[in-house]
Design brief:
The complex is a heterodimer of chains A (401) and B (378). By secondary structure, chain A is α+β, with helices and mostly antiparallel strands. Chain A has a domain of 156 residues: Orthogonal Bundle (MetI-like fold). Chain A has twelve helices and eight strands. In chain A, the strands form three sheets. In chain A, strands 1-2-3-8 form a four-stranded antiparallel beta sheet. In chain A, a hairpin with a 2-residue loop joins strand 6 and strand 7. In chain A, helix 3 packs across helix 8, helix 5 crosses helix 8 and helix 10 runs antiparallel to helix 12. Chain A is extended and about 80 Å long. Chain B is mainly alpha-helical and 378 residues long. Among the domains of chain B are: 52 residues; 207 residues, MetI-like (MetI-like fold). Chain B contains 15 helices and no strands. Classes of the chains: A alpha+beta (401), B mainly alpha (378).
């Protein structure tokens, strides 16, 4: 007859020591006490100095300035903004501008990055070389250099609005930025949208049906002509019955610049191009590393099952590579968002430029303003990395299985 | 498996065995023209090259103007053909790009520092040469002191050259090298602290690292320029360059810490356990057993973060320091040299400098990586 295992002795002292000082024991505890004392002393000195300095330089403190009138204009505001708005509004305008340029950059960088990354792995020698050269050149030049290059050299070399490069008299590219027709919905928009939704729905059902058939009989149904016909034809039909769904407001040359339409400031164009091409080079390397991390045997097994090269890539390699690609890819997105702060160098009104730049020089409240700016970026990156570590925990569990 | 899944019963037809095609023509046929898609791709790539490489070469060399004393030499009206690069602009501004506004009579001091740095760095980079420890000590500890004395002056009869006169390559290299040298000990300390079992030390290191990694460098530079002076006693001023150096070192230190932590994690536990079984203390275990192996593992990663740091030095031009890029912008503002091709020429010149430095570093890191993994190659 076996007896129950005896519980280990409680060892309260040892446990306490371990909890308080880790493996180093009481010495570790003493070290922490020293650390706390030093930190407290530094914090005290910093606060003391800051208070004295603010008093001598007659700078106000506190966050009250956020509610006073800003009194300066911003060249691009996506939310309504006028000079009589508050600094808080300026902060929001800057933040939306940062997010917009980051979003545009992220989308373009992902597309270019995947194209270049897969191009580097292409069996076509010339394409692989060109993609490699792109990555090496872009990665080894500072981002600020590239932003200035696009802004000062390339965009400034474009003709002025009067001689702007025009595509079909509707898209204009000049040194004052980029103008294109602004879509305005008409009464026919609703039926059009319903037609598009129906077409998408039918296409999805068709695809599900085709997959079921493939799995059941092994016969592949060619559905793309039907899907394309549906997606193009149905909305066209709706448009011909109910009239054009969108009216366009064209940019018109008035004086020395364009008026009307959808206009984008040149700073935005330069920043978006530089950010997306720069990040694309890093994303290309991530994609390449991800694809190469998939074992050769996987692709060979796919080929021996009779899949075509494109199908092997789409069905076998990329899904497995995505697991490796996604975490560093998110990191690049985060970097791109942080790098958008270089907008300050060319005067695109992003968060750093209008808030940590203009607002700081107007109010002089450096501590509050820089703390708010840093806190915003920190929040964005902590949320993203938190989500990523959740994802990492999930994939590492499934890979361990 | 559900019963709906189809299982093929016939074999897929075997592919034809690949034909070996040797020689240049074989290469062209297999790697460039082996399928209609590839022919199309090759053609598109060739077109792309035609429209990028040829104009670039034409701009930089063929159509370029090589001699002149002011903008007139680079105007298409005087030259008579559409002008490419305006190299006289670079010649005229060259000393500014290298030294900034460093007084002309004292520029030998900058030259000496550059030469000394190169002489100490070169043998450090060649793995075959002996006395790495002494060499590293000279470069990382003695050289910064000597360089400071030489560049700043104030000792031994050298006149003081205030840092606001420094500029160009000098500032770029000073910021980059100080950042690299100062961020290493910070990175090692933070990486060890993050793996420490002492709770408060670990948490404060994590908080510190995540903070610096979470904010853009430009806000760090703003912090160093506008906020740091408010935190110091009123009668105590810090030089503008030094403030930026502190910000850059802390920023780069946090990034290095994460790289080094990767190396520490790659060292098997058994190494530290064996060392402590031999009776070594934690400090000795770390210093003699764990760190040397970990650092060697992460040399490529560290070089990558040094490249990022070198590129990031260009940001100091935003906080009113004139590094290479800042000097370039200043040179653009000179009306004596304003011509249609001045901007492109300036960007081409600085671009080549940055590219050579960064590309060289990345090639070196590849070389080291290959050397370190020599035993793994089949």
């Amino acid at each position: 007859m076996s007896s129950e295992a005896r519980r280990p002795p409680p060892q309260f002292g040892a446990r306490l020591r371990r909890a308080l000082g880790g493996q180093a024991g009481w010495r570790g505890f003493a070290l922490q006490v020293v650390l706390v004392v030093v930190l407290a002393w530094v914090a005290h000195a910093v606060i003391d100095n800051a208070r004295a300095n603010l008093a001598t330089q007659k700078i106000a403190s506190g966050f009250g300035f956020l509610w006073s009138t800003a009194g300066f204009g911003v060249s691009q505001a996506l939310i309504p903004y006028s000079e009589s708005d508050t600094y808080l509004r300026v902060l929001l305008v800057g933040l939306t501008n940062t997010l917009v340029v980051s979003l545009v950059g992220i989308v373009c960088a992902t597309v270019i990055g995947f194209v270049v990354g897969l191009g580097r792995l292409s069996p076509n020698w010339l394409l692989a070389r060109i993609a490699g050269a792109y990555v090496e050149v872009i990665r080894n030049l500072p981002l600020l250099f590239q932003i200035l290059f696009w802004y000062l050299a390339v965009l400034a070399a474009l003709p002025n609005p009067r001689q702007s490069i025009a595509l079909f008299d509707s898209v204009f590219l000049s040194n004052r930025g980029f103008g294109m027709p602004k879509p305005i919905g008409t009464d026919a928009l609703l039926p059009f949208a319903i037609a598009v939704l129906i077409a998408i729905g039918v296409a999805v059902v068709l695809r599900i049906f085709a997959r079921r058939r493939l799995f059941a009989t092994g016969q592949r149904m060619t559905i793309w002509p039907a899907v394309t016909g549906l997606l193009v034809g149905f909305p066209l039909l709706a448009a011909s019955i109910f009239g054009a769904p969108l009216g366009f407001e064209y940019p018109v040359l008035r004086g020395f610049n364009f008026a009307g339409g959808l206009r984008v400031v040149p700073e935005f164009v330069a920043l978006a191009i530089a950010l997306s091409t720069y990040s694309a080079a890093f994303i290309a390397e991530i994609v390449r590393a991800g694809v190469q991390s998939v074992h050769r045997g996987q692709a060979e097994a796919g080929a021996s099952l009779g899949l075509k090269r494109g199908d092997v890539m789409r069905l076998i390699v990329v899904p497995q590579a995505m697991r490796v690609i996604l975490p560093p890819l998110t990191n690049q997105y985060l970097n791109l968002t942080k790098n958008s702060s270089l907008a300050v160098a060319i005067g695109y009104p992003d968060l750093v430029s209008v808030f940590a730049g203009t607002t700081l020089s107007q109010t002089g409240q450096a501590i509050e303003i820089i703390a708010i700016t840093m806190a915003i970026y920190l929040t964005i990156s902590l949320i993203t990395s938190g989500l990523m570590s959740l994802y990492g925990a999930r994939t590492s569990r499934s890979m361990g299985a | 498996m559900s019963k709906a899944v189809y299982v093929a019963t016939t074999m897929v037809a075997p592919r034809r065995a690949p034909v070996r095609m040797p020689g240049a023509w074989g290469f062209v046929r297999t790697r460039l023209l082996n399928s209609p898609t590839n022919i199309l791709l090759t053609f598109a790539c060739a077109l792309l090259l035609w429209f990028t490489v040829i104009p670039t070469v034409k701009f930089l060399l063929v159509d370029a103007v090589w001699q002149g004393s002011d903008r007139n030499a680079c105007l298409p009206e005087t030259v008579g053909w559409p002008v490419g690069a305006c190299w006289p602009f670079i010649q005229a501004k060259f000393s500014q790009f290298i030294y900034g506004f460093y007084p002309e009579a004292e520029r030998w001091r900058v030259d000496t520092t550059f030469l000394l740095g190169a002489l100490l760095l070169a043998p450090l980079l060649v793995p075959q040469l002996p006395a790495k420890a002494a060499n590293a000590a000279l470069f990382f500890i003695a050289f910064p002191v000597v360089a400071f004395v030489l560049l700043h002056g104030g000792y031994g009869g050298l006149t003081v050259v205030p840092t606001r006169l420094w500029g160009g390559m000098l500032v770029t290299l000073v910021v980059a090298i100080t950042g690299i040298v100062a961020s290493m000990p910070i990175g090692i300390a933070l990486a060890l602290g993050r793996r420490s079992s002492i709770p408060l030390i670990r948490f404060s290191c994590i908080a510190f690292i995540e903070f610096w990694r979470g904010v853009p460098l430009i806000t760090v530079l703003f912090f160093a320029t506008y906020m740091l002076p408010l935190f110091l006693p009123g009668n105590f001023t810090v030089d503008g360059l030094v403030r930026v150096l502190i910000g850059v070192a802390l920023f780069a230190g946090a990034y290095n810490a994460e790289v080094i932590r990767g190396g520490l994690q790659a060292i098997p536990r058994g190494q530290a356990e064996a060392a402590s079984a031999l009776g070594l203390s934690w400090w000795r275990t770390t210093r003699l057993v764990v760190l040397p192996q970990a650092l060697r593992h992460v040399i490529p990663g560290l070089v990558n973060s040094f490249i990022a740091l070198l590129k990031d030095t260009s940001l100091v031009s935003i906080v009113a320091l004139f590094d290479l890029l800042g000097q370039l912008r200043a040179a653009f503002a000179d009306p004596a040299w304003s011509s249609p091709s001045t901007l492109f020429t300036g960007f081409a010149f600085t671009g080549i400098i940055y590219f050579v430095l960064c590309f060289g570093m990345s090639r070196y890191s590849l070389f080291v990586e290959r050397r370190l993994n020599a035993h793994r190659r089949s």
